[in-house]
Design goal:
By secondary structure, the protein is an all-alpha fold. Helices cover about 75% and strands about 0% of the residues. Helix 2 runs antiparallel to helix 4. It is elongated. The relative contact order is 0.15.
């Protein structure tokens, strides 16, 4: 497992083909594990837990672990999407 600093600053590298393969793989992995409806539900729950929950109820370990895993996949998805976005911004 990475420390927060190692995880937040880890970036993919490689040739253009390797970066494209990384991006495609991570996009596929993300949506295979978190279909769109599930993804939107988890994102909403993260927001609710962060901002709107006034009770001191602590999430069960399994729910917490799933939200952390979702965040980690979302983080990687953002990296992959950024690679695709950078390619789209280049003049053709």
């Amino acid at each position: 497992m990475y420390t927060p600093d190692q995880f937040l600053h880890k970036r993919p590298s490689g040739t253009k083909a390797e970066l494209n393969a990384f991006a495609k793989t991570k996009l596929k992995d993300f949506f295979d594990i978190y279909p769109l409806d599930d993804s939107l539900e988890y994102l909403w729950r993260m927001i609710q837990q962060s901002f709107y929950t006034k009770s001191r109820r602590i999430l069960p370990n399994a729910e917490r672990a799933n939200l952390i895993a979702y965040y980690e996949y979302l983080h990687t998805l953002i990296l992959a999407a950024n690679i695709v976005n950078d390619e789209l911004k280049k003049p053709t």
